[in-house]
Queue: 4 jobs
Job 1
Amino acid sequence: MTTRNPCILCVGICCMDVIQVCDVYPEEDSDIRSKHGRWQRGGNPSNNCTIFAQMGMKCEFMGSLSDSAMSTVLLEDFKKRNISTKNCVIHRDCETPLSSVLLSLKNGTRTIVHSNPNLPEITFSDFARCNLAEYTWIHFEPRNPPETRRMMESVRKWNEKVAEEERITISLELEKPGKHPVDVAELADIVFISRIYAETELRATDKRSAVALMRQRVEKP
């Protein structure tokens, strides 16, 4: 039996979040002052890594990054938190994705305006450079579903040829209706579903029905 140093790999997007906390959601063409504002590294897989690092777990983020000054700030934050980015792909002359987030204290809503003018999504060829022997868990955000499927299939093939204790747990998030296809979930061991995805894509009315409907969609007869 081999002993591995468990590492979780999160594959997807990293962006800069600019967050404004407001008493109420602003009216169009208005000028208001927020309660407070901040900027921080964002993107679901990137944020997952932050949580894992806070829990003392070894983790790595893999995604596309630009060579901009803003991306340098993101990389410095990863480094400060001991989150590896060794397999990230750096693209020249591209902009860093940016999310403007408005939080309403009155209604508890979160409104996000996201921009990504020209930064390519991660590809299977990029992912294929990873040494799968280093990971015990890989989490995917399916921003480019056909490429994500190929990545997940490659991990499943890896699991078929290694000993049970060396197999990798595969997880997937389904957040955006119409953009994250349900069928990719058949390749995952664990699937995380957002509320809006469950309501819109699965037509679920509660958590239990969401699980049941997901099983119906992905389980083979």
Job 2
Amino acid sequence: MPCVHGFIKGRSIKTNAENHIGSQVIVGLDIKDFFPSISSRRVYGLLVSKKLGLTPEVAFCISRIVATPKGLPQGAPSSPIISNMICLGMDKQLMHLSREYRYQYSRYADDLTFSFNSSYFFYRNFYSGGKLRLPNKLRNAITSFHGTESFELNEDKSFYSCSFSRQLVTGVVCNQKTNIKREQYRRLRSTLHRLSNGDIEGAMGCYYGKTIAKLTDAERGMFEASLRGSLDFYKSLIKDPWTSGPLMRLGSLYNKTKPENMPTFPVALQQDSLLYLEGDDGEENSFEGLGFYLPGYGLVTAWHVICDAVSHDKTSREIKLFSSDKTPLAIFRFGNEVVQDNKHDAAILQDVPPAILRNIPLLPSNMDLLTKGDRISAYQHHFSKSRFSFELHSGDLLRVGEPSEEGTLCYTNCSFRHGMSGGPVFNGLGQVVGIAHTATEHGKLGSFLPLRDCVRSTDVYGEWLLF
């Protein structure tokens, strides 16, 4: 049944909540003692029914294995599947009634949700005397669809919520999009801020909502995994995670405080993934630019950023690599044979050590060519003695050039300036679509090379020396 979202592959509390996004009114009902209500007798009746047609002997044995007279055992792998089979008749009746009462219906285990695109139908059929009142047909579909052995509603957990208030479906906010509760976000933010200040005990207390003295050994031991799980859950609810500023800020905080044995959280502020390249040609001429790591390819930057260091007649044939917080990462010494394969202004440094990548969030990418009017953005770095700072420049794609030996250059009114060369160019979804190429007219216009041309550029090999 399309209305069932619990215990089915590819469905979850997120897909359950997505069915009700943008509704005027949402009604939530809860079945009392859901698994205990499904006794071995009900399972036996299901197995000998015409749809399954098992013999009484086989049905009796199976029903005794998977259930007891007191209901389905919670935690057994068979219980969720059997509960969905038992509820099939109820789900069909409730779906049929949706045409009459004009609601959208979904179920996740014992949580039944009804939503209305028009509040008129809710107030006409489900509201009376200032309270939630279920129509008799709908109530009977839940409590009497199997005669005396049906379900009982938990009236204390029944609720309704309108669009001008927070709407929850199976614990997920779904007013305009799926999201976590505001208090959950604040708890995560406060926890990560405490961690960033070195207050581990305070972070645990904040996360669990307890005083430090009341924390159990199990909670202390599971804290790191549980915190990461909460961030992953938040990420799973966001349709386009790399466009969610709150999630990206939490990801950046987490990556700065995470234990060494935990992987980097992938969704973070874009500037955390930027790499700063700096060097000189041995003749007191310095050069600089930006780069980023593209999974499956290597460290991508502009060819003109590194070309001054690869010529054979230069005394210094190396380039320094820094993270976005000005932490020295490595020196890359170019090999003896570095020849530009084509005229594309891009280079890919190969064999990047895992130690460098361990603390750098990976950026999502898109190889498709943009079209005129698409929104794009890129970062400019500002250098100081203690740190780098980054400024986001945004603009629109003005036109796509004709394919040539230099690639298919794209022209934009995004202000590209000195030092941005080789840095990633993002589309409106936060995906990398190219690298900054050149700036013209005092930085008011710029061009970038699409990512699909970058990956067909020169592979550069050499020796990595870690700091």
Job 3
Amino acid sequence: MELKPTSPRDARTRSLNKKRTHVTEKTIYNYDTALTRLIEFLENEGTADMRDVSSDTIARFEEWRLESVKPITARNDMRTIRNFIQFCESIQAVPIGLHELIQITKVKQEDEICDDVLLREEAVQILDQLEKYQYASLRHVTIRLLWKCGMRISGLRTLDVDDFDEGRPAIEIRHRPETGTPLKRKHNSERDVLIRPDTADVVADFIQNRRPDVTDDHDREPLIATDYGQEVPE
């Protein structure tokens, strides 16, 4: 197969245009940020055509990134780059199979922790205290849902009161970009999370006894709310 001359910037633009059909703008932003770093590296090396990009080029890019970022950031970048190279294969800009030669940055287990995911040790200790002293409080229901639903804070922000189905019981996670709470993979990220009756009791008691009767700027009723509207930590 004869490769076609393609500049890194043109390849990036075409890749982003394809991504926009099925991911959110936030994902596009993150993807573009990593690709911009790659293009900066390629231009510094004098590489003006994707046909000149090899697995060694990408390995040198990884080394360059690790000089200024943590391994977990470099790993995320390398995953994006590998996906980008696979796209470049599809438009005949680089050899078929090049993406398979790209090795993703290895990260130590202690560096795997993501700040917006609640850890088991923290959750058990916190929930024990909340169960005793702050039952069905805003903090109690927030921590309980984060832990029991395996949910990230960004997912918690999407929830309205009506997303709690007490009958099953379940939490319904929905993509609502028009009212400020998009999901990363749009409708593909929508799901119903079944919860245990004891967790449902906490949510129901919070809604009935502790949650203020407020709406947000879109006339929605956020599940996690205070007298001032939605209150989910950044």
Job 4
Amino acid sequence: MAVPCLLDNLIKLLIERTFIVKPSNFLKNQHTHNVYSYGPPGALLRHNILQEWRRYVLYNNNEETFWVENSKSITAETPSDTRVGVEHYNSSILHRCPENYLVIAKQLSKKLSFSVAHTSVCFDPQRTSGENLSFLESSENTELTVTHFCPSTTIVSSFSDCHRRRLKWWRQYARFPSNFILSDPQQLNVNNETFQLFKVQFHFPWGWDTIETIINWRDYPLQCIKDVLLSGISAQSKIRRSASLPCVIESTAILERAFLAFLLDSFQENIHTYSKSKTRSESKTRSILKLHRRLVPYKIGVSVSGSKVSYLRKMALRIIKDIEDLELQVFHCLDTTNSLEKQYVMFDELGVLLTIVINDTTLESGIIGLRSRDTSLKEPLHVATLKDTILKNIQ
């Protein structure tokens, strides 16, 4: 399948700006499983996506959610196990789900409804990849999973609420929310039983593809511990005969898919026309990543331009320290050999929200320039009001 030009251009930008990093020829010969690794901006973007997902499941969910960690990664039984959207039953739910339920319901004495969230690395040694898609279709994927336990009487409403809220979560970070949709209900057949699922899909250059799957498992994963759950009730009791097990809803997203989906959604190419003379002009294509303010790797950029280089750098370092005290990631360019225009191009390709411009005038008057990524406009303001202005613009 030919990869569309849009994806080619995006991957070229990601490599140039070190979102993803190709290994050297030496490392390629060391039997590495991933053709690509993640550079500083790519690692920060992955971290921010994971943080937003974790914040949602732990603090913005409608019920109590518990975070657990797996001590080891999962090895896929078939190459399709690592891909969201392939109707292949991941048998690991039979091990994780009963164990998590027993720990929380029995030992912590928690009553329904509640959820368990965790991440896990799924590894498939048989997986092979194409040249361009190898950083996405690697042999190693990070699964973001939430398992919801609820009474059988509320499973229908809980399942409906779950897939609606998950679609809303994806769309709130999108530049074009219509790029994210919810599929029609589908069926998953496992051991002669049928389960309903929905998929959150993104409009990739090759078509609609799955980024998250939400499955209604009913009580299937807990059947293996039914006797343990009902151990306190007599076998002849009417209560035991009519008792029902908790039901399970599981949503699983793939971090690598989310990484590419948000980048594609934010990627924009603009044609700028420059006048080289009175009779001649030249057009150039400029790329920009308009990532959501909560996902962008670097919220603030610092640029220096002027002749008093040493003084400008000292002032820039003080400003950077003040911004980092706000726990914001800062990308700075203190090399005055590059023109401001080239620095703006670099900041736009990194998705930097706001760029602070320091020049010789700043040393005399304390006035700096604050450039917006989304409007390309630069407004003057005094350095004393900088922190308040930044907080106002990024929140």
